[in-house]
Write a structure and sequence with these properties.
By secondary structure, the protein is of the alpha+beta class. Helices cover 55% and strands 10% of the residues. The strands form eight sheets. A five-stranded mixed β-sheet has the order 1-2-8-5-3. The longest helix is centred in the first third of the chain and has 33 residues. 39% of the residues are buried. The N terminus is likely disordered.
Length: 810
Amino acid sequence: MLIRSQLCTNTRQFWIGPFECIMTMLNPEYIRLALANADTKDNIIYDFVKHWLGDGLLISGGEKWTRHRRLLTPAFHFEILRPYVKLSVESTYVFLNKLMATKGECIDVYNHVSLMTLDTLLKCSFSYESNCQSDLNNPYIESVYAMSELLAKRVIFIPHHNDFIYRLSSNGREFFKHCQRVHEKAETTIRDRHKELARLAKSDEEEQYSASKKRRYLDFLDVLIQARDEDGNGLKDLEIREEVDTFMFEGHDTTASAISWCLYNLARFPQFQQKCRDEVNDLLTSKDKEELDWDDLNQLPFLTMFIKESLRFHPPVPGIVRNLIKDVKLPNGGFLPKGTSVGVSVLATHHLYWDDPEVFDPYRFTPENNAKRHSHAFIPFSAGPRNCIGQHFAMNELKIVVAMTLRRFIITPDEDNPPQWISRLVLRSLNGIHLRFTPVTHFGLLAQNKDGVRVRAIPSRVEKLVSTKGECIDVYNHVSLMTLDTLLKCSFSYESNCQSDLNNPYIESVYAMAELLGKRFVFIPHHNDFIYRLSSNGREFFKHCRRVHEKAELTIRSRRKELARLVQIDGKEQHTAGKKRRYLDFLDVLLQARDADGNGLKDLEIREEVDTFMFEGHDTTASGISWCLYNLARFPQFQQKCRDEVNELLKSKNKEELDWDDLNQLPFMTMFIKESLRYHPPVPGFMRNLIKDVTLPNGICLPKDTSVGISAITTHHHRLYWSNPEVFDPYRFTPENNAKRHSHAFIPFSAGPRNCIGQHFAMNELKIVVAMTLRRFIITPDEDNPPQWVTRLVLRSLNGIHLRFTPATQ
């Protein structure tokens, strides 16, 4: 490698043209001495950005730097950074939706990541909702991007290092035009914020409280305006503008570089990618939630080690330069006088002072290995008094983006177009960073099917409830048809109209098989396969089984032919076909799935998985929804609280229907659904055959091949594991109560490696159905005909679940 062949001493001289020389440090101990003081940044490079950033924290020195660093430090306190996690999550969702739209094609990810980090920074800097990831015509965004590109060009073109020459050039005139626009935007925002704060100071307490509720967090601008030194003096508007611009400059492209290279390294090393994915999934599953929050970020040790190794291998800022403010004596007896320009080659140090530096190994960053290493051998955020003040912000954003991406996609590299490193102000690639993002089965399906679940299946059921005109009905069969309708659309885009057309042969067979299985389960002689095949029920079951298999096999063959045809047609027709298909269904995902050796599933295996998805997701979800509606009817106070929560959320967003991003913003309704799943678990029990001996806490050993039963319904109602288990109380599922409870006391979707792979799909459908129903109806029970529980394959009622749906006044 070039770095290794040229850099083999503690220092080297680096010339910029014939006049400027920088003494570059490579040895970690030399770097420690060079960065030990608050030396000013060298004018050679940093003067280029001074016109944009002014005399902000990046460039200033002396007493001004000391004062500003002290005033800005609170802006990066953990309590200020905490709400920024939510903002980063919001921006990342937009980024992931863009990745989903690529449909597994290779893309240069850098620009997409850069827009995402800019989106997050604008929200955190001054609460600016730019929509820059989708709206590229925003003048402010255009200017920020243009200035970054123009700066990179200036660095590599030596004549433009002269400010007079640069101002006369076309690039220089363009740079200063954009610079003026960015400054005007920042100055206008600062003036408006001052006016807002002055107005609020004069308003009454109620208005102040209302304003604080609308503002979800303190942004960087708030902190800067409120900052005061020991004499009570704050920052002037010009100083505030300079610090906001500095935050934007330092945090935008550097973080984009770090994230992009991290995604590339995940693609290069699929074994580490899967380990990171498993860690994220295990953490969120253990906490029974979908999104990371602040408290989770320090509970991902391997992901953190991976990110650090990526920052070592591809440091976003490859080098830094300082002007010494006092003499420095080096360990070899050398002497650097005050005023010397000293460079630190981060990239070179990261690839010289390590064992096997060209091997990518996250385990370098275990606590034991960290303790053995020189403190200045790893410096992606610089070091010393002038280290990066925003490094915790950057690390948090890295963890969030990587974790959320791994939850939804498998990342693979473009083997034919590997990136070509190039050191600019940040580490870039000459030819881009080309990656392929293939949806992970469990999330690829959910995110793309959000419209299918929300818009198309459920309104049919709502229309049926309207038609009951407030009379009592057994809701179970209606719900069962709705869940079947949804599953058919999500499984293989089959528009069955089963909620209105009950004469469909495929639907008839699915229903018949479910009923026949229920009967077989309770009639012991039919457990014998030979006897069952001779019985009338058995013959009926296998007749319907054949019909269901034929339908699935025909659909699989047709879809394969369609995909083969699309491969051979031109791009325009492919685009038209892609627009007609609004989402990837389960069958698409199965057909495209490949293992590490590039092998896919056979048609028989695909059919078996589609049938399994239908079987597991149909009646179980119908049971979960039906009992949930019953519990809403039983407890009108909780019903109204859920209804209010849904209405308030939709009103705040000025819309009528929930979408994907709303599903995690209904905390009380989620707690209610979970309590319903505890009280009435859809799958009351399940069995396992042990594949190895298991020793229980009381010393008893269960030998391999023992049949082990788990009674979810008994565990959920046992006084040893729940206080007052017969009381219906959604507040059992507050985060505080969840943390106190044993992880396996609540198991509606089973647990362990063989837990329900579709549990997120089921929870999403539960939330959507409950929310849409509560928006339109008040639910009351039939007091004269309460349901009588009966445990079959799913929890049913012997006499049905009878409810009355009265249209809500709204």
